[in-house]
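TA notes, week 10

Several of you asked for a full example with nothing omitted. So below is the full record: structure tokens for the whole chain, then the designed sequence directly under it. When grading your own attempts, check the secondary structure regions first.
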């Protein structure tokens, strides 16, 4: 155990023990081991118990981590600016689909800004698997929006399968998808699994990977033009193309925008990064014991943006652009938003917004660690990536 971590209180530990017991039973029923990805899925999304499914405060200062929309309104205002032209190109039938709405902070600002930009979608749909987060989003939006705007918001149980046109947006969702971990031994691909030690504690082990994971690892090796070294270990999402096709659903015309932390493939699978990118977050402490306290901590892995580009184009979209979060926000009105605030002459407000802008854009903060990738089909979205397009790096 990492002794620098704060200790959860007794109630939280009891809650985690309940989930741990459920996972232990599943391991025993599966013959003694489950893939790490299954452990992560249960730890994050087990109904009523998982990190995202149960009631703890996740976002913001009192939670475990802060996402860009939680820092303040600038991020969502710039995203709204970037997608407004697409919504206007589509016209009255345009819909906006947000995947993984978090606390509802993004939706609140984005809807207000889209209204100002005369680009209100006919429907703002939120696809949120966590019942607890849905409830929090509903409460927040009902409080913050006018009844007319709130009436446009709808929560979905699954993707929009009928034909639709509009914009799909996801911030920090791909990093939260349960990820398989692989390891290389004697040139063969193994999958990391979770087993129980003699005292019933979770422990990692490996077993030969199935055909899907092996093929996905070989695909990455071919892309990198060299095999992974002995003992190399990392994450890979073979299911990403299927996930993306599923969430896009029946979209015929429109744009997709994903924002997340990660790298292009060559950087993601650098030789030195030989234990992957998996991390756990507990009350603003980052550590690498993903098996600790299931249900109490967030577990994430960085995103391979080359894989996301392959998945988007594989789903029939054109790549619109790829750039750092800093360049995306600066290219979509960040400086103008700051100027507007500074012009009000309220020093405290200016300081607050300037600090927010720094967090979002400085290379030492979120500016370069976070990246944006966009896709388009039968609309023009590439203009949103004019500042510092890095598509050539994918
Ligand atoms: C790290 S949070 C980010 C929340 C929000 N987008 C933000 O930026 O604050 C991840 C979100 O993705 C949701 N999520 C995870 N897997 C999902 C999936 N397969 N489909 C839709 N949402 C998902 C979680 O429930 C949660 O709301």
């Amino acid at each position: 155990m990492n002794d620098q971590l704060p200790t959860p209180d007794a109630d939280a530990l009891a809650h985690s023990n309940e989930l741990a017991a459920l996972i232990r039973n599943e391991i025993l029923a599966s013959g003694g081991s489950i893939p790490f990805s299954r452990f992560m899925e249960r730890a994050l999304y087990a109904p009523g118990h998982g990190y995202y499914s149960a009631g703890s405060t996740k976002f913001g200062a009192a939670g475990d981590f802060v996402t860009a929309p939680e820092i303040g309104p600038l991020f969502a205002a710039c995203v709204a600016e970037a997608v407004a032209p697409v919504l206007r190109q589509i016209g009255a039938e345009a819909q906006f689909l947000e995947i993984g709405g978090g606390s509802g902070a993004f939706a609140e600002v984005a809807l207000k800004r889209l209204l100002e930009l005369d680009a209100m979608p006919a429907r703002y749909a939120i696809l949120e698997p966590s019942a607890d987060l849905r409830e929090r989003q509903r409460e927040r939006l009902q409080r913050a929006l006018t009844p007319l705007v709130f009436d446009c918001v709808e929560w979905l149980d699954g993707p929009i399968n009928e034909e639709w046109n509009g914009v799909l947006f996801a911030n920090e969702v791909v990093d939260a998808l349960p990820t398989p971990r692989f390891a290389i031994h004697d040139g063969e691909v193994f999958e990391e699994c979770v087993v129980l030690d003699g005292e019933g504690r979770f422990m990692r082990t490996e077993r030969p990977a199935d055909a899907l994971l092996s093929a996905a690892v070989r695909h990455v090796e071919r892309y990198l033009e060299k095999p992974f070294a002995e003992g190399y270990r990392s994450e890979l999402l073979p299911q990403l193309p299927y996930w993306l096709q599923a969430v896009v659903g029946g979209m015929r015309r429109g744009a997709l925008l994903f924002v997340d932390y990660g790298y292009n493939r060559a950087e993601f699978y650098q030789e030195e990064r030989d234990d992957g990118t998996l991390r756990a977050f507990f009350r603003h402490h980052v550590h690498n014991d993903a098996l600790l306290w299931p249900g109490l901590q967030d577990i994430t892995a960085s995103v391979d943006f080359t894989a996301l580009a392959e998945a988007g184009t594989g789903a029939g979209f054109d790549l619109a652009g790829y750039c750092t979060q800093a360049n995306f926000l600066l290219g979509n009105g960040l400086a103008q938003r700051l100027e507007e605030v500074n012009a009000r002459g309220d020093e405290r407000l200016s300081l607050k917004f300037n600090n927010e802008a720094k967090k979002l854009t400085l290379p030492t903060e979120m500016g370069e660690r976070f990246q944006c990738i966009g896709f388009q089909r039968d609309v023009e979205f590439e203009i949103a990536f004019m500042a510092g397009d890095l598509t050539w790096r994918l």
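The first strand starts at residue 34 and ends at 35. Use that as a sanity check on your answer.
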